[in-house]
Protein 1
Amino acid sequence: MTDATANQMPASGPAARSKHGSILVQAPSMRARNRAEARFKAYGLAAIVLALTMLAIMLTTILSDGLSAFRQASLTFPVTLDAATLDKSGNRDVAEMSKATTVTYGKVMAQSFVAHLVAQGISTEGVSEKELAAMLSKDAPAALRNDVLANPDLLGQTIEVTVLANGRIDGYLKGRVTMESAQKDSNISPEQLVLSDALRKAGILTSGFNWGFLKNPDASDQRPEAAGLGVAMIGSAYMMVLVLIITLPIGVAASVYLEEFAPKNKWTDLIEVNISNLAAVPSIVFGILGLAVFINFAGFPQSSSLVGAFVLSLMTLPTIIIATRASLKAVPPSIRDAALGVGASKMQTVAHHVLPLAAPGILTGTILGLARALGETAPLLLIGMVAFVDNYPSAPAEGVLDPATALPVQIYTWVQRSDPAFVERSNGAIIVLLLFLMVMNVTAILLRRRFERRW
Amino acid sequence: MSVFMTLVVLLIIAATAFVLCRQRALAMVAGDARKLHSLPGFHGWHGVVMALVPSILMLAVWLIAQPMVVERQVFAHMPTEMTADASAAQLVMADVRRLAQGLETAVETGRLGAEQATSPTLDPVTLRGVLAEVGVALGSEVTAPILNGAQEYRSLQSNFALWRTIVILAVAALGVAWAVRLTQPDFWARNRVEKVVLGLLILASTIAILTTFGIVYSMLTETIHFFQQYPIADFFFGLTWSPNFKGGSELGVLPLIWGTLYISLVAMVVAVPIGLFAAIYLSEYATPKVRAWVKPLIEVIAGIPTVVFGLFALVTVGPLLRDWFAEPMGLGNSGSSVMTAGIVIGIMNIPFISSLSDDIINAVPQAMRDGSLGLGATKSETVRQVVLPAALPGIVGAVLMAASRAIGETMIVTLGAGAAAKLSLNPFEAMTTMTVKIVGQLTGDTDFASPETLVAFALGMTLFVITLCLNVLALIIVRRYREQYE
């Protein structure tokens, strides 16, 4: 020990030494060695700082680009639902009313919007009627149409509606769209932005928490403001539950066999080598397997959460088996000997004593495996989950066969779209995904802290 | 009854069996469990095993066999020229299935009477309209043989489903009856239950082998299909990659392998020094307090999904490199490039290398450090000349594993590297990798008979073999040298 401390002291340099009046003068070679020592240490520190800086940059860009996705601009104004245009036959028959398309509703809505602006005395100078209508989201007429079809009595009334603003107007409120960028943008004009400032003052254009982002299904290229994570979150939830149901029993069973029962022979060696190899196989290979086996061979429906869960399960199993085996190994043999000594069978020993003691470790490993599966994208692309899905999958049992998408895949599809509003959405989706991952990881850490035993 | 409902009923039968067998065992010894060979619960579990194991095995066999039998039956009544060729037969069968599905939905929604759907005089043209209403779009023209086939398919399916339910439930009931009969005070229920449980455990542990087998088998068959259509030499030695779904594609893998290796090289150049120095600092220099904070923070990087790194590459790193390095140096103006993808993969791999190396460095015995320090070496000299050489095999193993991860990485390269297959040395140019092309060739509408789709399987196989070799090599190195100091 004294050697080590004596050796550390020169690191503080000759300058420090002379202050204490030491007569020891370092030889030039020793000084060079100490400089090398300091350099080496600095490299290590620099490496850590660099790695953590990268992490910090990444997280801050995600947060700064993504937090705005949780706010959304909307417009509130009264709409007069003209019965003559929306229900030509006049008998309030839903089947006939559905002949009025969203285009018609769009016109009705635009008229009411313009009329309201005139009534409020807001100048619309330099903005054509078409541009005025374009300030509303393309999704708004469809939403209004659904409301009317669900409740035909609304016809003929004037109702107060709150509709999404166009993605560019939304971007203007968030600072993504500016007067300069609007000049070059064919989808928005600076006059429209001036008008939206006036609308804000009048209280027509407001901005609030974006529940739609968490609830709505995906929307098409033209309407980023309506796109949400609803379907993706349901799909991910279905898959996580299925992965848990599939991997936990199989993973625990396999590890118990390998750790407690398996004889040492070629066959178990083969299994072990296989498991450690599978843990390192690129995830996309599992996607190819899923495509070939589950979809082409077994005929399961494409883009269903069931197939996604199968693929993710096969991918996570090795991780869970490795973690489970480690925690089984950590249970001291004396526990097993005691149980066997009082007459328990081997199976009873494992079921009554070893497994309960290893449970916290198994659970921690499983949660970490699930977290990995939740963030996995590549294999899901191959089994068709990248498809555009705007219908919610139905309730469980049958819903697992419906087309769905997953959170990471949704991020990927949004990134690929051209409208910059989708980049904001995908950053927002990343925040949601990271929140889920953080909750899972913190749970795992807490479990480990709370229940981990040192023998 | 649907398969799901059958399973539910089976579970109910199993629960009954548990109660029956347990009660009977207890009743036979007048409630004195000491006189039983096995605990009463084991008699109950024996009942469950007897109810479930044979019936579920039966169900599995039935579910695998049924489609084959039905298909054969349907084909038997079709003109032979329609089913002579295997791939044509598959298409016919797909049509039949879709039509049968459509009929089913039409009957369910009440747009078609149950008798109407099965009548031989059903008109294909009106049927088309009806199916379009229920949302089943038919691709090809509905011909009479296909329609008849679909009708037969439907009736066979429902017949089989009925028989399946009856047979399975009968098997389960028989099993329960037998289990009840076997229940005697001196019956070794525990041993039998434990044997079955052990069998299940073994079955679970073979899943890993089945998965590997499935991967190899599925990729190998499709790869062989591919090489029947495309010469193997052109694939492995071709210098151009230009798939064309109209035919006449050139599918040389070399540009892809080059892109993959180049990007992985950049990634390793970033990850290895940073990861290794971080590990050295953490294990040799850092105070316990610093270590307790920094180590988990670095591992946070490992928990971030790859698609997030992909977005980071596309939105932040790519434009940064383009504006600050590529354009001023005149090396190109592309945001997605080898550098972009490589650097980001490198960042992703830092925690992987650092935590593996950290474990390995910690495994080097303290006595070796003390010996070196005692001879007067400085700390860094000790690390460089004693600790690192001792830990080298393990570190090489870790680096190899990280390399295999970099080669198999998909999302970062899909978003950050670009899609152009090129053989170029310029690191600021967009290049592409095998994984990107697998995603590209297999997403969207795919035709599993064309070489342009099948090539993805050949690429997957190449990727699998490369990463497998790296992993096995790493495993061997780590295993061989790990025990050296234990």
Protein 2
Amino acid sequence: MTAVYGRLQTLLEGWMRRRSRESTPPIRLRYRRVYILPTRNGWLFVVLLTAMWLGAVNYSNSMIFILVFLLVGVSVVSILHTFANLVNVSVTMGRVEPVFAGDPLFFPVRLHNPSSKARIAVGLRMAREPQGFTDLPPNGDGIVHVERPTQRRGPVRLTRFDVFTTFPLGLFVAWSPVWIAAEGLAFPRPETGSVPPPSGGAGAGTGDLRTEGSEDFAGLRRYRPGDPVRHIAWKSGHARELQTKRFAAEGASRLWMDYERTAVNGVEARLSRLCRWILDAESEGQSFGLRLPGLEIPPDHGPRHSRRCLEALARFGS
Amino acid sequence: MSSAQSSTQWLSLPVITALMTTVIAVVLPHTLHLPLWVTAAYFILCAWRYLLARQGRLPPPRWLRITLTVAATIGVLLTFGSITGRNAGVALLALMTALKLLELRDKRDTLITLYLCYFLAATQFLFDQSLPFLLYLLGVVWLTTAVLISVSRQTAVGRPWRYAGTAAKLLLQAVPVMVVLFILVPRVSGPLWGLPDDAHGGVTGLSDSMSPGSISQLSQSDAVAFRVEFDGEPPAADQRYWRGPVLDAYDGRTWSRGEAQDFGDPPEGILRGSPTDYTVYLQPHNQVWLLALDLPGAPPKDARLTAAAEVKANSRIYETTRYRLRSYTEHTLEPRLGESQRRRLTSLPEGVHPRTRALAGRWREQAADDRGVVQRALRHFREEPFVYTLQPPRLGADTMDEFLFETRRGFCEHYAGAFTVLMRAAGIPARVVTGYQGGERHPDAGYMIVRQSSAHAWAEVWLPDGGWQRFDPTAAVSPARVESGLGGAVSQDEPVPAMARLGESWVKDLRLQWDRVNALWDRWVLGYGPELQQEVLSHLGLASWQRTAMAMATVLGVVLAVIAFILLGGRERRPRDPAARSYQLLGRKLARAGYPPRASEGPRDYLARITRERPEWRAELQHIVDLYVALRYGSASHPHWQRELRQRVAAFRPR
């Protein structure tokens, strides 16, 4: 029985998918891909109307007939209203901010209303679970965030969700399945507690290591976010930009974070520790390089660099 | 979204206020017949819930709600002796709706409460089906729908009144669907199951017994008993006797129907003269009697003629009923009377009315034959100082002797009863006929209205040479009663209902116009049952159910297509902003010249694309686009820019 049901489900899914055609954003929810069915409350309303109708027949009461047929009319007309509230809305995906494994990812789905009529309470759902609703003003947009939990690091894909609405009466639900390629990334969860510092870069390939560091002034360069405050050249007199004092150590003392030298065992534990190191180095404005089996990212600093390194950790092994 | 988390958001004070307004509006008409304690409990529960919401407090605990529910059920059971009848059911439904308010926790509870409101509105029609009621309840349905929309909405609920417009739109668009379904959905003749005893109450009409006071009470009502459309001219006023139940059993005070009438064959009768054909629209009176002009021929469908020539329907009249009849004002009813019949119809209870019997005995001796006795009796009523009044004095132990010899004040039931007793005492078969006498013609619409105030009783006497003959002793006392109705027959200070009074007044005129609307309503809407539907459908050429189904599908399809077009086709509407309108016009002009705007393109990109190919338009287009962008997206704006843009676009002619 369940096998038959499952097979039916698959067939239905395939059929809807073929009807959907477009899969690159913006996806416009055209007539042919909007479906409509009664909700649970809709069925309850059917039961109510049936009871009222039986009463009307039993008492031969014309007025109850009028009321019942009026309410039938309202429900039928509400099918059209619900449908019109969804059709032609278009869907695009916003940028997904990466998170650390264990935190939920939020996929921003942007809905656009191309018509001159406001769309009210349009929502998203996944596996029948509503994710959130928004109102779309005439010719306006709304954003609904689809929340996906992450348990482990790595990419999380959002492949299918429904855009749906039950406005105005909640008796019918109009929905349109959307297949869209959206990916969010979960970085490894940074290790907490007392984490030993990276073992320098001893034996690392590039250049000699001068640990004494930031003593020898080596000139000025443009300030980059993450530069230590004490290195800012407050008196440099540059009108527009902050300048950071460069010291000899910075150029040469490149920290290497090496997968093979994390002093822990297990892939995830190593990645966790690397993640911690990267975050710390980033907050201290230190320059570092990352070495993973089969990948080497040359030393640099700044948020973009850290981000690149964290992404490498997240995708490691996949 | 869990309910707890969202409940505070949507169950806001405005929503609660709207919900309270709805449940109170829906129960308001019910207060006319609900027991006082139910009404009081209903309002107290509503007020309680409202105060809880105002103070932001939680609903009462579960045990208290259960206790209240049980108490309400027991209360209904004690008041009505049942929880299933019409009145008990409605009382219980009302109480449960109010109790449901107390446990509003999530959206679903609220929706169920609103569904119950629709149901309560429907039950109202079991008590009253008049037009003003329908209008009131349509208002209630409108309100309920608006609140339903605001509660079903998942985003910010806001004030429910905001959805009055949407609700009105839904209801108006539903009206054509309702009309189609009302006409075409096959009507089954009910009832499907046994109706409770109190299914139809509070309706006035003739009963099948008569004692002093019963008809004068009925006469004080202006309610319409039935309306009649005559095919030709209506009969003269003194011929408008509408025959109802015939009463031939007498216990010394009350006249009632003998059961023999129901088992005999229809009477042998000779009907003469030109027939009168007419259609009666009878208001529900919860009895089986179909009123017929004296004397009816063949009975209509679903009815039969009893041994006393009454028309009796096969089931009680609970809704407006339409029937056609043919009557003959000249007739000989039952020319031969059997001996046992004769004995029964001349019998009186032992030992009652000694003075009345003595009087009848004297007349018997003086008169040559039965007809002589009848004439003597009528002369007695005409010549002695009898008074026709709606307010006769109360009668004591022997009602008849007291009335005939002491008080001499009475209404038609007194005179008909006394006359019949006198006839029987003289050995002449006689019985009382109840019904209506008279009726006013609607000055414009032509149909005849017979009101409860025309309720009447008269006597029938069996004479060897003519069968049953109608004699109206009231007419002997007060000839005006038969000629001009109740208003002309009793004195001015009696409690005659307004419409029965003589004379013209604008109030009366207005009420007659209103009656016309009601007549149409009763005829076409309330009276729209299986039979009328059959007639209408065959008139429309929809004799078979297949054709009806086809017609229904087609008409509904067209109706829905029109609504869908209104809802979905309105996308390409003219923009409100005049600048956008001008720009749209420019786009159309350029499209004709071969450069249609693209949906993804802003005005500047559009300008750039066109001027690459048509540099000669650059100067003019640049101007227009600058104006448009300034008007649409700029912070400052001058009224004359708008005009300039419009003029430039109008003047621009791409070739």
